[in-house]
From TrEMBL:
GO terms for molecular function: aspartic-type endopeptidase activity. One of its GO terms (cellular component) is fungal-type vacuole. Pfam families: Asp (PF00026). It comes from the Eukaryota. Belongs to the peptidase A1 family. This is Acid protease. InterPro entries: Aspartic_peptidase_A1, PEPTIDASE_A1, Peptidase_aspartic_dom_sf. Keywords: Hydrolase, Membrane, Protease, Signal, Transmembrane, Transmembrane helix. One of its GO terms (biological process) is proteolysis. It comes from Lentithecium fluviatile CBS 122367. The lineage of its organism: Eukaryota, Fungi, Dikarya, Ascomycota, Pezizomycotina.
Length: 486
């Protein structure tokens, strides 16, 4: 009796955990890079998302606080203090030109948390999420029809945003319509935007994560729903290491090094945000940074990033409470103009502390909104394999793709391409074949052997990567060209 009850209880638990979400749903991958956007003279960096019918294509900046996805109206720049407004909005949306737009005058905004963002009107229209693995191929699109959007008419910020706040309407609609496994989302912001000054492109994965985009362990954190940016972490140390002398480790928390502090500062909580590039650190730690590197105030980028008086070659490492350490390499700690990714801070400021996109340029973020938790891992800067996989809500922690050691075109990342895109169909065919095989075996074998069988299948599934090496690689001449794409 007792054991029957136990098994019933266990199976009910399992059912609750797994059956609520269909973790066989493929994720939706949307890349982030520079491209032509609607009604703007310059290429802009952001998520490749269109709106309306016919499509008006935009580059939307992911927002971890805003819940609505928004587009700039043509009138925005007439009413805005945004710098270089005509080339910074992510595109312009003309709702009159869209046959699928319907305005919703009585809509109550979900974004009341930040007073000072932007004003506009709401409506429903078709969102077009583009997946574009390779420049040589066309993009494919996932249509999200009748989704709520905000059209921005007045404000001071970049108004073209994908809203990924706690009540994100895009995630809600994708999950409610069974287009992804649940409300999970992953972000690599990349470094291809002007302030970061780098080359690497980024990506969004709705309902999944790009397992080729990070390496090493993943670290899990609860969301803090009281914060405007609910993804927060606690920082216990920050140290600077001089490239010329790798043993020169100076901690900005060290009160023997910085006698202004009577004792070692406490751990502090910082919000991960995409709404600014630099870090905003507690006043005293900012002062220690200034005195250690001889920094001074500057506002070249309009974000109060500190500037060094003379060049310094070294790295800055941020140590989170659980030991996860994110290191900014020398070219990020100080760019060619001596500008750092650390913001000045007033002594009496009560603003939250922030880890901005400088931090996200080094980190892969994977968020599970269903359990209000998120994972961080070290980003792979120059991967050439796109490996989107399903991120099962409330499921096991995401795991990084392990690159096979051997094989020339494996080294070039082509296996990743095979799985990620080009030959995805073949991958599915292999899976279907495995499934058929497993069905036959299951019929033939006794129930007691099922578990062992499943283990075998899991091993076989892992071997598919090796199997794929038997496919013919693309022509040699095409290969380098191919790999410039991401
Ligand atoms: C789960 O999703 C897959 C892929 O879309 C689909 O084939 C399958 O029928 C779904 N399963 C359930 C139980 O809905
Ligand atoms: C400012 O926005 C309003 C709508 O809120 C619009 O009617 C007006 O034309 C805009 N002003 C300019 C100068 O674009
Ligand atoms: C987004 O929605 C959450 C509630 O789920 C709210 O706490 C937050 O303030 C909203 N974001 C903004 C920018 O208002
Ligand atoms: C928004 O602004 C009003 C005054 O304009 C102020 O009273 C209120 O506290 C502000 N709310 C937030 C969340 O900043
Ligand atoms: C709130 O709005 C201000 C001004 O528009 C912006 O600078 C700030 O980054 C926003 N805060 C968040 C958490 O989005
Ligand atoms: C928007 O992007 C899609 C996908 O690349 C493309 O097919 C379409 O022509 C673009 N539309 C415009 C108006 O540029
Ligand atoms: C550094 O920032 C300056 C802005 O002062 C910019 O002009 C320059 O391109 C940046 N350099 C690099 C290497 O990112
Ligand atoms: C620098 O200090 C940190 C801890 O503060 C330590 O983890 C790291 O190994 C040190 N690096 C060197 C080169 O001493
Ligand atoms: C980023 O994307 C752009 C636009 O597709 C492309 O031209 C560029 O080569 C990509 N950068 C890298 C480093 O792959």
């Amino acid at each position: 009796m007792a054991s029957l009850a136990f098994y019933l209880a266990v199976s009910v638990l399992l059912a609750q955990n797994t059956d609520a979400f269909n973790c066989s749903k493929a994720p939706i991958y949307v890349d982030i890079h520079k491209r032509a956007v609607h009604d703007s003279p310059v290429f802009q960096y952001g998520s490749f998302i269109g709106v309306g019918t016919p499509a008006q294509n935009h580059s939307l900046w992911p927002s971890l606080s805003q819940n609505h996805t928004s587009f700039a109206a043509h009138t925005y720049c007439g009413n805005s203090t945004l710098r270089d407004c005509d080339k910074s909005t992510g595109g312009f949306f003309n709702s009159q030109d869209s046959t699928t737009f319907s305005e919703d005058n009585n809509f109550q905004s979900l974004d009341n948390g930040n007073n000072s963002t932007f004003e506009g009107y709401f409506g429903q229209d078709t969102l077009r999420l583009y997946t574009h693995y390779f420049e040589t191929d066309g993009a494919s699109q996932t249509l999200l029809e009748d989704s709520t959007i905000k059209v921005a008419e007045e404000g001071s910020v970049v108004p073209g945003m994908v809203g990924l706040g706690l009540s994100s309407t895009v995630l809600r609609d994708l999950a409610a319509r069974d287009m992804i496994s649940g409300k999970t989302y992953s972000l690599y912001i990349g470094q291809g935007f002007d302030r970061a000054g780098g080359m690497v492109n980024g990506s969004n994965v709705f309902g999944g994560y790009d397992s080729g985009r990070f390496t090493g362990a993943t670290y899990k954190y609860p969301m803090n729903t009281a914060r405007l940016n609910p993804m927060t972490v606690k920082i216990k140390d920050i140290f600077i290491t001089n490239t010329e002398d790798p043993n020169s480790n100076v901690s900005l928390f060290d009160n023997t090094k910085f006698p202004d502090m009577k004792s070692r500062p406490d751990t502090f909580e910082a919000e991960i945000t995409t709404s600014q590039f630099p870090l905003s650190l507690p006043y005293q730690i900012t002062q220690n940074f200034i005195s250690h590197l001889s920094a001074e105030e500057d506002n070249t980028w309009g974000d109060n990033s500190l500037k060094l008086k003379s060049a310094f070659s070294g790295s800055l490492s941020i140590v989170l409470e659980d030991g996860f350490t994110v290191t900014f390499p020398p070219e990020v700690l100080m760019n060619a103009s001596n500008i750092t990714p650390v913001q000045s801070r007033d002594e009496d400021s009560t603003a939250p502390f922030y880890l901005g996109t400088a931090f996200l340029g080094q980190t892969y973020l994977m968020a599970d909104y269903e359990q209000q938790a998120f994972y961080l891992a070290e980003a792979v800067q120059k991967n050439n394999a796109v490996m989107p996989v399903t991120f099962c809500p409330k499921g096991p922690a995401p795991t990084a793709y392990e690159r096979p050691q051997q094989g020339a075109w494996v080294k070039q990342g082509l296996i990743g391409a095979v799985i990620g895109g080009v030959l995805g169909g073949m991958g599915i065919a292999v899976c279907v074949y495995c499934f058929v095989l497993s069905c036959r075996r299951k019929v033939a074998e006794r129930k007691a052997e099922k578990r062992a069988q499943r283990d075998k299948q899991a091993k076989f599934a892992q071997m598919e990567v090796e199997d794929a090496m038997e496919f013919d690689p693309p022509p040699k001449s095409a290969t380098p060209f191919f790999w410039k794409k991401r």
